[in-house]
């Protein structure tokens, strides 16, 4: 390596002024340009100036990418600085040129820190290394690498010790981070799906509420749920003869089996029929009244999951439910995705009837706002509280040492805060 770093000084001309003034879009493009070039993101900060113009920097393990824009001239100046030879900054140059719709760009590459001009100082590296530990013996980590899920107003960041898995599948980017506070974490397209430390909340609540309400469920269908947590909880119920799970992305299953063993522990279970396919197609092809319970454990209504949030799909789910069948779905955060949340309950009430659809909540620390909702819809009128078997619930929660669900919470989860109740009344 002749020099410590490569510094590409870039000028983009004739760009779209709208794009050069869109801070969220610019940040996404810069982060994508860094990742596609092979860099590991540590952190990023972007600022929108008033009345226009954006400045920002993406700190990468291999140094940084920085930008300043002049939308009024359709001009952006960018610095691509990388150390080592694992990152190719020219990949970022080309991606950003396309992202900013630049008419043309010019760039000059400088070698930074010519080795021939440098002489290594004699200092004790060990003294700098993060090999110290707290009184409790936990390692004091000085690496400051953060994963951040954000939209234009809210962000959630988790410190991590690197990516264990990172694949662009046919549908989405599938990644596993080794977080310091929540263990291994699955993200899809940069959104938190599940973490080892709080997954039980989501998986216990999406399964045991319907399973301990339905009088005698024999066959259950899971749409999505590729991490395996929902199937694991369902298969605790001996009454079930078969669980069919239809996950569209085999890379999610692979990543979960490799790096989320406690969540994916039931993916080889003899009663599990695991199918890699589009859940929409599977439901359309399924026979009438063929399932007692359908759980839609999907991602947000984007990409492959978009079709899972349509009236047609839910009418088909209704068709394949047995006469006393129940459907439960993750129904987003009332606070974070208010519009989708309201639409979901309107849609279900249009299909099942006003009194047959109920909302319940659970608190998941690594989901946006922490407050997450589930919908419960019954075809045959089984009411989640009036018809739930409290004694069976109590015994089940005790026998399986559940960490979140219990007979009191089963009822309490349906007691909604007024602002949520008002949103769907
Ligand atoms: N608990 C998570 C949440 O609430 O965001 C969801 C977890 S689970 C991993 C979501 C799964 O749905 C993903 O693995 C995704 O690939 C899958 N999925 C999305 N669209 C699908 C479709 N049309 N058919 C089947 N699976 C789908």
Salient structural properties:
alpha+beta; binds S-adenosylmethionine; 13 helices; seven-stranded mixed sheet; 18 strands; six-stranded antiparallel sheet; 28% helix; 425 residues
Question: Would you kindly provide a brief summary of this structure?
Answer:
The protein has 425 residues and is of the alpha+beta class.
Any idea what the radius of gyration is?
25 Å
Determine the oligomeric state from the structure: single chain
How would you sum up the global shape? elongated
Any low-confidence stretches, pLDDT <50, length ≥5? none
Which structural class best describes the helix and strand composition? alpha+beta
* Beta-strand content estimate: 25-35%
| Number of E strands | 18
Biggest sheet, open or closed, and with what strands and sense? 7 strands, mixed
- Considering DSSP H and I runs of 4 or more, what fraction of the residues is helical? 25-40%
Cα-to-Cα separation, first versus last residue: 66 Å
Tally of helical runs: 13
Global mean pLDDT: 93
Widest β-sheet, arrangement of strands: 14-13-12-15-16-18-17
What ligands can be seen in this structure? S-adenosylmethionine
Descriptive notes:
By secondary structure, the protein is of the alpha+beta class. Helices cover 28% and strands 33% of the residues. A hairpin with a 7-residue loop joins strand 17 (357-363) and strand 18. The protein is elongated, with a radius of gyration of 25 Å. It starts with a strand and ends with a helix. Bound molecules: S-adenosylmethionine.
């Amino acid at each position: 390596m002749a020099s410590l770093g490569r510094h590409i000084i870039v000028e983009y001309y004739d760009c779209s002024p709208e794009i050069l003034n869109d801070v969220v879009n610019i940040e996404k493009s810069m982060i994508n340009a860094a990742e596609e070039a092979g860099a590991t993101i540590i952190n990023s900060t972007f600022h929108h100036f008033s009345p226009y113009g954006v400045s920002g920097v993406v700190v990468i393990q291999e140094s940084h990418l920085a930008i300043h824009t002049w939308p009024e001239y359709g001009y952006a100046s960018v610095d691509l600085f990388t150390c080592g030879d694992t990152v190719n900054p020219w990949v970022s140059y080309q991606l950003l040129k396309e992202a900013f719709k630049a008419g043309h760009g010019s760039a000059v590459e400088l070698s930074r820190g010519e080795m021939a001009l440098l002489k290594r100082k004699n200092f004790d590296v060990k003294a700098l290394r993060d090999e110290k530990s707290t009184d409790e013996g936990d390692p004091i980590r000085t690496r400051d690498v953060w994963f951040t899920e954000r939209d234009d107003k809210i962000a959630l960041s988790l410190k991590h010790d690197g990516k264990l898995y990172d694949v662009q599948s046919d549908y989405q980017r599938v990644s596993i981070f080794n977080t310091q506070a929540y263990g291994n974490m699955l993200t899809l397209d940069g959104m938190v799906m599940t973490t080892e430390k709080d997954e039980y909340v989501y998986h216990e609540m999406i399964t045991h509420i319907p399973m301990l309400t339905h009088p005698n469920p024999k066959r259950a269908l899971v749409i999505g749920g590729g991490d395996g947590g929902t199937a694991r909880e369902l298969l605790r119920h001996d009454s079930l003869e078969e669980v069919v799970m239809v996950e569209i992305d085999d890379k999610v299953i692979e990543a979960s089996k490799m790096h989320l063993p406690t969540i994916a522990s039931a993916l080889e279970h003899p009663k599990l029929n695991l199918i890699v396919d589009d859940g929409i197609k599977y439901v359309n092809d399924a026979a009438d009244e063929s399932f007692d319970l359908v759980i839609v454990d999907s991602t947000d209504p984007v990409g492959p999951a978009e079709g899972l949030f349509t009236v047609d799909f839910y009418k088909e789910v209704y068709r394949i439910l047995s006469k006393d069948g129940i459907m439960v779905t993750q129904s987003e955060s009332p606070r974070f995705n208010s519009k989708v949340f309201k639409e979901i309950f309107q849609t279900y009430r249009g299909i099942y009837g006003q009194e047959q659809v109920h909302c319940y909540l659970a608190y998941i620390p690594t989901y946006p706002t922490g407050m997450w909702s589930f919908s419960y819809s019954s075809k045959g009128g089984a009411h989640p509280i009036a018809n739930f078997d409290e004694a069976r619930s109590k015994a089940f929660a005790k026998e399986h040492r559940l960490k979140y669900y219990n007979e009191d919470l089963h009822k309490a989860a349906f007691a909604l805060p007024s602002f949520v109740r008002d949103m769907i009344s």
